[in-house]
Amino acid sequence: MNPRLLMLKLTKHSTMNRTTQISKTNGRYFLLLGNARTALAAFSVFAPLMACPSTASALSLFTPPHHISVNEEETSHKEAQKPSFPKMDYGAESTYAFPGCVGHGRLTRGARAGKNIKLYKVTNLNSDGPGSFKDAISQPNRIIVFGVAGVLDLNRETYRLKDNQTILFETAPGDGIELYNGRVSSSNASEVIVRYMRVRMGRQYNKRDAGDAGGLSSGFNQVYDHCSFTWACDENFSISSDNKGIRPHNITLQNSIIGQGVMNHSAGGLVQTNDQEGITVYRNLFIDNGTRNLKVKGLNQFVNNVIYNWNTGAYIMGGGSNVHSSTIIENNYFITGPCWVWRNTPAAKVDPSIKDNRSVCIPSGNEGLYYTVLKKESPSKAFTRGNDNFDAYFKGNYYDDNTDGTLNGVELTESNWGNYHDFRINFLDTPSPLHPDIKPMNAREAYKWIVAHGGASLPARDHVDQFMIDELKSLGKKGTILRDTHDSTQYPIANTWQQIDTTNNITDTDGDGMPDEWEDKWGLDKHDPSDAPDVANNGYTNIENYAFSLEYPEEYEAAYQKMLQPTSAE
Description:
Elements: H1 3-10, E1 20-25, E2 28-33, E3 36-40, H2 43-50, H3 53-59, E4 67-69, E5 118-122, H4 133-136, E6 142-146, E7 150-153, E8 158-160, E9 165-168, E10 177-180, E11 183-185, E12 189-195, E13 198-200, E14 214-216, E15 219-225, E16 228-230, E17 237-240, E18 249-254, E19 257-259, E20 270-272, E21 279-282, E22 285-287, E23 295-297, E24 299-303, E25 306-308, E26 315-317, E27 325-330, E28 333-335, E29 340-346, E30 361-363, E31 370-376, E32 383-384, E33 390-395, E34 397-400, E35 410-412, H5 417-420, E36 426-427, H6 443-453, H7 463-473, E37 480-481, H8 516-521, H9 542-551, H10 553-564
Parallel strand pairs: 5-6, 6-9, 7-10, 8-11, 9-12, 10-13, 11-14, 12-15, 13-16, 14-17, 15-18, 16-19, 17-20, 18-21, 19-22, 20-23, 21-24, 22-25, 23-26, 24-27, 25-28, 26-32, 27-33, 28-34, 29-37, 33-36
Antiparallel strand pairs: 1-2, 2-3, 4-5, 29-31, 30-31, 34-35
Helix pairs in contact: 9-10
């Protein structure tokens, strides 16, 4: 028997409160439990070990790891056993961050950029300690997966990601993970891939009632994909340098929902660089943010996004900045919502007797000095605050401002620009060569795709994302810019959004994030957790391929059927 496999079988029955690492050094296999190190001799010594009942009994106390460290040397003997996963269309330059990744961050490698990749499985919803999400992100060079579902209270903290991390929230059971009451930052990090993450910040984040739900102020080579950022008291998601580290560049935000920024600021986000440091914003939904959907300056791609129900600002073109901007604004859909806005209003200016559905007055909690009042306001135009430093390749953008429940907007072009806006920008005939090529959908197709797939749609859409999608589908009939997400008067699902399915029906014997059934199907070893970070035939690790199979089941099934076909004899 292979000694490593024997060792893993001996660790099958144990408690789950330890961190186990497996490594090979100078021909010997080791189990590491905290500070304890038990050496298992090389293969020649395993026979007498197996024959000793007392030794075997003692080894049965070891724990299947939720933290697996794999030495690169260990994987060499398994090259011939790699399953034939589909390659799909990853691009010609190299393996992209994942299938379908585009833009400036497309070549991000995440954990694959590091050495001695480690797999960490989150096994509880604790605020810290072994098996927690906080512990998972505390070290670089990790692929992070999830064996638990539910609401994780961040306890008003900022969770900071590290270099060379790939975080796969779609691997969670049930309805997945909700990160609540805090924020996530990837500042000062490089090589970060985050997929299917939900961050619900909330007004109680701190005493100042301020802060972004997510984003970065320094760092490079990062991708956020299929995420949902809501309820921030400042920006929901921002990329804006603080001049304290490497300026943000090679960043992609795609397929995500950035929505329900909390009044009175209520902002989607900032994307601010210089004209040499590229950011791509692709196929996202910006919804129920009062302003900054986005505010942009620098080298930026804004492609296939849908912007719905803003107030004072949809897309802000540089503002008063003298920074030169070189942008692509292509095939986006701007859809005006009803623009109902909850605002803090001095009590002296409020008639508390008004109780209809258009002017509901409720105490704000500020010692009776204010009421939170629902007002009907008039939204700004789709594009505002352009300047002479703003260069844009502008094509295929539509503007629907009639709130009639039908998607029937008019295309905005250089020729009709003056009908809708009173400022000028510099229209480019061709895109800047500094931007990577994207083959966009048309604006209507992008709208349909976002309705079907946008946000953290795996393992399932939660109530918050579905609420926003339903508002979008009303095409002008529904939509409110909120102040307090705790108040059901303002937010109908305030008391129900946390009702998510936490059922775990996934059998994962070796704790590596890949279900037994899936490992059996693809010829992997469900008793061997070290195969999860092994790089497969298509350039991605086995655990990444499992995550991709949730997203592209038909492609993976086709590849599996092809793998079953007998090969012709040579």
